[in-house]
Write a structure and sequence with these properties.
The complex is a heterodimer.
Chain A: H1 5-27, H2 32-51, H3 66-91, E1 100-105, H4 111-123, E2 127-133, E3 136-141, H5 144-151, H6 154-161
Antiparallel strand pairs in A: 1-3, 2-3
Helix pairs in contact in A: 1-2, 4-6
Chain B: H1 2-29, H2 33-59, H3 63-92, E1 101-103
Helix pairs in contact in B: 1-2, 2-3
Classes of the chains: A mainly alpha, B mainly alpha.
Chain lengths: 165, 109
């Protein structure tokens, strides 16, 4: 979907403003040379982003709001739990792994949501997203337990619920 | 209070360091490419998060803490992306993961 040119220009200005604010905040220096370099990098970034077609479609998904934070809280607990599990497997002298590849369905159809689901799967130790194809995500799992956990579909449900209005 | 903060910070740093160490041991012990990625992901999730929280406690309420939070956010967004790129490159190059392939068809109703 291609938007009205004015919307595109507004997004360009918004990104440029954000980048410049970030530069000044991170550096904390106000020497003319550094400010010029900063302006140059911000403009270059905006130019490259534009060339990538970033402003043409709805990728700027800053409208998840509070729900994203509660998802992060849930994800943190999952990461903690599976980190301890993988650490236990690694330290076990018998190395009790049962590697397997499974395919789960991604209920959310928007590319950003599928990216969130894939990244969440990879971020959780013991599961690794390999490929997304036609609403199916191929996942490599370190253990049977990890695979069973993912097959229960809770993560998929929670990601799908992120975008419901 | 300062002592408590120091103790909490050192605990976080030590546990984070332990996770980084375990991740390294795992990357050596695991038998093949994909399982090694699993072990290494301990390093960039729990390891990085705990170490950065530990440094934040040392930095206190300052700009440095804001920067650390930004580093943490970017790390958590980019490291799974890098792992995905690594795994799908291996898959495209023809390295098959071991183990059987299953789907969730029979389990989801």
């Amino acid at each position: 979907m291609v938007n009205h040119p004015a919307v595109g220009a507004m997004r360009v200005a918004l990104l440029l403003g954000l980048l410049m604010a970030a530069w000044v905040l991170w550096s904390g220096q106000f020497l003319p040379l550094l400010l010029t370099l900063g302006a140059f990098s911000c403009l270059l970034t905006v130019y490259l982003t534009r060339r990538m077609g970033y402003f043409d479609n709805e990728v700027f998904a800053l409208r998840f709001g509070v729900r994203l934070f509660s998802y992060w809280a849930w994800l943190s607990r999952e990461v903690l739990r599976s980190s301890l599990e993988v650490a236990r497997v690694v330290l076990d002298p018998r190395l009790p792994i049962s590697p397997q590849t499974i395919e789960i369905k991604a209920t959310a159809s928007h590319p950003v949501d599928q990216a969130i689901l894939g990244n969440s799967i990879t971020l959780t130790p013991g599961t690794l997203a390999l490929d997304v194809h036609r609403g199916k995500i191929q996942v490599h799992c370190l253990t049977q337990a990890g695979a069973a956990d993912l097959m229960s579909g809770e993560m998929d449900r929670r990601v799908a619920a992120l975008r419901q209005d | 209070m300062a002592l408590l903060l120091d103790i909490a910070s050192w605990a976080l740093l030590s546990i984070g360091g332990a996770f980084v160490f375990i991740g390294g041991v795992g990357a050596l012990r695991m038998p093949d490419f994909y399982t090694r990625i699993h072990a290494a992901s301990l390093t960039d999730t729990m390891g990085a998060v705990l170490v950065i929280f530990g440094i934040m406690l040392q930095a206190g309420l300052s700009l440095a803490t804001v920067k650390l939070a930004a580093i943490l956010l970017f790390l958590l967004l980019t490291s799974p992306t890098a792992s995905n790129a690594l795994a799908s490159a291996a898959l495209l190059a023809g390295l098959r993961p071991s183990g059987e392939v299953a789907t969730d068809e029979e389990q989801s109703t």
